[in-house]
Amino acid sequence: MNRLRLTRWLVSLPPTLFLLLFFVVPSLLMIVTSFRYPGEFGGLAPLSVPATGLAEEGSGLYGLTLETYRFFFSDILYAEIFLKSFAVATATTLICLVMAYPVAMLIARSAKKYRNLMVLLVVLPFASNFLIRIYAWMIILGPESTFSHLINSVLDVLGLEPVMLLFSPFAVLVGTVYVHLPFMILPLYTNLEKHDPVLLDAAQDLGANRWQRFWRVTWPQSLPGVFSGSALVFIPVLGMFAIPDILGGTGDILIGNLIKDQFLGTRDWPFGSTLSIMLTLAVLSVAGLATWFARSRTASSN
C-alpha cells in the first residue's frame, strides 16, 4: 500500500510542480501586479513609502490601488477591442471547422496505408518557423503579388474599386486560419477515425439519405472532436498578437496586441496585468459555457 502511494506521488509530483511554477505562481504575480501603481520609468512603484520618506521621484504613488480596473471599465474602447478579438477568434474557429471537417473525414476514410502520409502533410508546416510562414503571406498578399493582381483584375471587371489585401482584417483572418487549421484537423481526424461504419450502413438500410446519415449519425458522434478543435483554435487566437502585428493594419489591434504594448511599449505593467486577467476570465467563461453546452447536449442525446 505504501509503495503504491509512493508511486502515485512520484507520478503526480512533476506535473503538479510544473503547474505550480508556471501557472499558479505567475497568475498570483499577475493578480498582485494589477493592484499596483506603475513605476515612473516602467516596472512597479514601491508598495510602501521609501526609506527617504518620499515616494518615487515625480510620481508620488505607492501601495495598492484599483486604478487600473477603474480605468479599464471607464473606457468603452477596451470593450470594443475585446469584442473585436472575440469576433476574429469566432470567425477563425468557424472557418477552420468548415475547412477542416472535410479534410479530417477524407483522412479518416482513406486506406490505412495513406493515413500516416496525409497526417504528415497536415503537420508539415510546423517544420518551418512560425514567423517565416507569416512573412510568406506578406509576399502572397502584397500589392505586387500575382494573387493581388488577380483579385483586383476581377474587381475591375465587375466595376469595383481595387482593394488592399495586406495590412487589413482579411489578411489577419487568413493568417490566423492558416496557422491554426491543423489544430482543428487533428482532433477531428482522431474522433472520426473511431466511428463505426456499421452505424452508417444501418442508417442507410433504414432509408436515410447521405445528408441524414451525416447529420443524424456522423455529426453527433464527432462533437467531442469539434469541441476539442474549437478550443485549440479559439483560445490561442483570442490572445494572438504576432499575426495582427505583421499582417494587420493600424485598425486591427486585438487584445493580445494591447497587452503586449502595455508590457513592452508603454511599460505599464499593472494595466497590462489587468488586461491579462480580464482576458483569462473571458477565456474561462467561454470554456465554462462550452463545457455546459457539451454536457447538456450529451445528456439530451442520452
TrEMBL record:
Residues 82-290 form the ABC transmembrane type-1 domain. It comes from Nitrosomonas europaea (strain ATCC 19718 / CIP 103999 / KCTC 2705 / NBRC 14298). The keyword Repeat does not apply. Keywords: Cell membrane, Membrane, Transmembrane, Transmembrane helix, Transport. InterPro entries: MetI-like (IPR000515), MetI-like_sf (IPR035906). SUPFAM superfamilies: MetI-like. It is found in: Cell membrane. This is PotB putative spermidine/putrescine transport system permease protein. The keyword Transferase does not apply. One of its GO terms (cellular component) is plasma membrane. It holds the Pfam family BPD_transp_1. It is a multi-pass membrane protein. Belongs to the binding-protein-dependent transport system permease family. CysTW subfamily. Its main location: membrane. One of its GO terms (biological process) is transmembrane transport. The chain crosses the membrane at residues 12-32, 81-107, 119-143, 163-186, 223-243, 271-294.
